[in-house]
Amino acid sequence: MNSTPTPSTPTTGTGTVKRGLADMLKGGVIMDVVTAEQAKIAEDAGAVAVMALERVPADIRAQGGVSRMSDPDMIDSIIETVSIPVMAKARIGHFVEAQILQELGVDYIDESEVLSPADYVHHIDKQRFTVPFVCGATNLGEALRRITEGAAMIRSKGEAGTGDVSEATKHIRTITAQIRELAAKSEDELYLAAKELQAPYSLVKEVAETGALPVVLFTAGGVATPADAAMMMQLGADGVFVGSGIFKSGNPEQRAAAIVKATTFHDDPSVIAEASRGLGEAMVGINVADLPAPHRLAERGW
Amino acid sequence: MTTAPRVGILSLQGDVREHARVLTELGAQVALVRRPGELVGLDGLVLPGGESTVIDKLSRAFGIQGPLRDVIAGGLPVLGTCAGLILLANRLADGIAGQETFGGLDATVRRNAFGGQVESFETELEVPALGPPTIRAAFIRAPAIEELGPSATALASLPDGPVVAAEQDGLLGIAFHPESTGETRFHQRFLDRIRGA
Questions:
Q1: pTM recorded for the entire structure
Q2: Sign of CA dihedral A299, A114, A124, B177
Q3: Catalytic entry in B82, B167, B183, B187
Q4: pLDDT tens for residues A80-129?
Q5: What is the ipTM of this complex?
Q6: How many CB pairs under 8 A join A and B?
Q7: Active site residue B187
């Protein structure tokens, strides 16, 4: 399950407690919020956790510029306002932003491509932290490299801030298909597979044997409707992140609650249909196909 | 009972899969429960770890809160871990506004009793009722039992005081996650209780 030795005295930050918190979030919806008021709305609507950030991805996209970790005062106010887990984003490779977030007492750090990367070579050494990390991935190799660095949860990246679910679909399908391919390989084929995936052999072998990632797999990036969330769950996600989709829509309270219901009953079209009624306008959205390559966030991280 | 006991797991949200794995390993037949009709024909029920506020809301939105209260009051054996303990408690020390529980266990439970995730911990725990060896217990943003009524019995406490597991007839409430650390004795105790019931 993990390599942490059994502690004989109370020990924080073990693999079991880091990965375990993600297990407790399964079947749930994690919502992006930029204020304490939004965090409260998210909690009341049934969010399993909130993601505190300075600007939702749709605004980061519209406004441009460098985007960074949120203001500590804002994170404090969200932690004080809600009792569900609070996550916050650090820039890829920015281990000092991560140190600050751990100091503030967030429950999970998202080393996120949605912010401007701080290091184009190295990701954060997440093993060094007590707080757990979630990282984005577009394919299995990327997911396994993040897990090797200490990520305790993976989310498929999708294309944040677009309201276009096609990239989320592509990434969750890619990861689950690559896991199935690995599970079908003979043991002597796994050496080459590890080389091709650019991931450690031991981890590749573990995934081949269990037919699953050793950590929870959520999906993110472009989920805007109850139907989008249910589709991600039917494609094998353990839960969903919804970013701009809620607070950039006409009726955030109702849409948030509807996405929560559709995630739990993702295999029941009658519930999803009912949840999809009367939600008002969804976020306007951008077609990923219309986005020039340099503006695609999913290509950040490697 | 000669056939495998049929144990439901409330599957609105949380670590359903981990409980299913342990129960299956111990020879139980597992049924996932999201709707009132799925409570029929169960020999026992597990309330998994997860986010108690979310499970509470969904249970009301989909009309299963009342039926759950009825089967618990009717004596169905229930095992609850972490969020499951919170949902099983008769009283909540610091729920969010309007948060409700299913109840059954005569106890007052405090949510997030140890603080946030950076305070989450693993430890070895003595549980006299289960005998040696000690339990490897993972406390993940865990609750604790603040006060236990006369009809309930403490099964385990941390060295510095708080009660973290308690039993009352067929109800077993645990603040940590035996399902996450390969510990099967609590689930075995629960199945034994079902078989004896």
A1: 0.95
A2: negative
A3: B82
A4: 999 999 999 999 999 999 999 999 999 999 999 999 999 999 999 999 99
A5: 0.96
A6: 134
A7: no
